[in-house]
Amino acid sequence: MTTLESRPNTALLVVDVQTGVVAGAHKRDAVVANIGSLVEQARQEQVPVVWVQHSDEQLARESDDWRIVPELSPADTEPLVDKSYGDSFEDTTLETVLSGLGVGRLLVVGAQTDACIRSTIHGAFARGYDAILVSDAHTTEDQTAWGAPPPDQVIAHTNLYWTYQTAPGRTAGTVETKDVKFGGTA
Predict the structure, then answer these.
(1) Cα–Cα dist 123/95, whole Å
(2) How far apart are CA 150 and CA 168, in angstroms?
(3) What integer pLDDT is reported at residue 6 of this predicted model?
(4) Do residues 50 and 38 lie in contact, with contact meaning Cβ atoms separated by under 8 Å?
(5) What mean pLDDT do residues 86-110 have?
(6) How far, in Å, CA of 1 to CA of 167, rounded?
(7) How far is 130 from 143, CA to CA, in rounded Å?
(8) Spatial distance between the Cα atoms of 35 and 73, rounded to a whole number of angstroms
(9) To which H or E segment does residue 137 belong?
(10) What tens digit of pLDDT does each residue of 66-75 get?
(11) Whole-structure pTM value
């Protein structure tokens, strides 16, 4: 395992908050509102906001479902990373973007908890990033028809196990939106 040297900055990583991805998501409006408040806080504190946008056969580029939700709007100066896999780092420009910004610490928000969020926080942590999950700013849809637990339990379990994630030289954990501090420990 590695840690990132000379990367003191923090970024807010907004993963897949797209119309089609969160349309049926658990507590969609509250989660999107929390993400919106974090985006505004990051902008006020001049913390980079990096957006990730998924596309695949079910989520076609330029479709209405593919677009970022109307409540949120990436600024022209904020990086937008296109991805096709669960892990936001896999076969994308994310590492290059974060390296260019001197980012070694990520606060992660978005969707879906049991897919792209889990893949991304694990991917970040394994690549040497401090990875903090904002516990009330990620969501997923109901997958109980396929044997998954209800969405509230998926979210709670992800928050529970990420709270206690450890590795040498890196920090993981969770924080609520109201307690986010971009400049220091979550």
Answers:
(1) 11
(2) 33
(3) 86
(4) no
(5) 97
(6) 8
(7) 29
(8) 11
(9) strand 130-139
(10) 999 999 999 9
(11) 0.96
The helix (H) or strand (E) run that includes residue 118 is helix 118-126
Alpha helices in the chain (DSSP H): 19-22, 28-44, 94-100, 118-126, 151-163
Give me the DSSP letters along 142-159: --GGGTPPPHHHHHHHHH
What is the spatial distance between Cα 40 and Cα 183, in angstroms, rounded to a whole number?
15
The arrangement of strands across the sheet holding 172-175 comes to 80-83, 49-54, 9-15, 103-111, 130-139, 172-175
Residue 182 contacts residue 10 (beta carbons within 8 Å): yes
First CA to last CA across the chain, in angstroms?
Answer: 22
What's the token pair of residue 24? 């049926």
Instruction: For residues 85-92, give the mean pLDDT.
Output: 98
CB 120 within 8 A of CB 16: no
Is 50 exceeded by the pLDDT of residue 1? Answer: no
Q: How far apart are CA 110 and CA 118, in angstroms?
A: 10
Yes or no: say if 14 and 109 are a contact pair by the CB < 8 Å rule. yes
